[in-house]
Amino acid sequence: MQNILFRANSSSTIGTGHIMRDFVLAEQFKDDNIIFATQDLPGNINYKIEERNYAIEIINSNDLEELVGIIKKYSIDMIVIDHYGIDYDFEKALKEITDVTIFVLDDTYEKHYCDILLNHNVYGDSIKYKSLVPENSEIRCGLKYTLLRNEFIKEKQKGRQNKNDNNQLNAFISMGGTDHSNIIIQILEVLKETPSIYAHVVTTTANKRLKELEKYVCSRNNITLHINSNSIAQLMNNADFAIVPPSVTINEILYLGIPFIAIQTAENQKYMYDFIKNLNFIILKKFSIEELKYSLREFN
Length: 300
Known about the structure:
Blueprint: E1 3-7, H1 17-26, E2 33-39, H2 46-51, E3 55-59, H3 64-73, E4 78-81, H4 88-98, E5 101-105, E6 116-119, E7 138-141, H5 150-158, E8 169-174, H6 184-191, E9 197-203, H7 210-218, E10 223-227, H8 232-237, E11 241-244, H9 249-256, E12 260-263, H10 270-278, E13 282-284, H11 289-296
Parallel strand pairs: 1-2, 1-4, 2-3, 4-5, 5-6, 6-7, 8-9, 8-11, 9-10, 11-12, 12-13
Helix pairs in contact: 3-4
């Protein structure tokens, strides 16, 4: 049995995606001892780590010595790093001090000092990492390694579940767990012009503007707000189309075969943006009322 440490954060700013995909990866190590090292940042989902009965170490900073201390405390065999703030130099120093196996998750083709590198996104290209990691590193990229929760696999087996009752279109709306770009309400304002669209909006309690969103939804009769939902895959599968960012969510959308409009909300989504655009799917470089209105014609 190995002792495996996951180093990742979640917050209203960072979002919840790193921790959520780490849960999927952790499931691949059922016979091992899993520990999470994470900070207590505003809007975090550390409670979800505890719900899964994983050990959790709250750390104060992204300090090398603090992490080394945890590695020694638990006699860690492998560390999984899912953190944009940890770079090649940090990883190299960590390896030299502890000789721990380093498993890195990367989305943006950065240089890493690691034993294993995983880019689980559909656009992942192993060739691009050849000069970015040590020669003996194991590189895992692309569709074969996409991290999907069991709920998505079950929904895929069911097939598409959308139903157009009374010409109603069900829309799945999510801008990540926190809507850090603050555009959900603007999207809903655009959808308001098409009464036949019923919106299922997905967010979490990490959303800083949750109260504002709840108030807005209360004023409308064709929106359901889903907070901290455990039925994301079912909601997607029941939708006629989705509006989402070009993030890891696209891995799930493409897997289920859901028509979608993607809206870029962060710089680190540029590789998914390019991948989608090259396949001629609908994607907006940034939120635009007019462009979204035009794109919605595809589904009316």
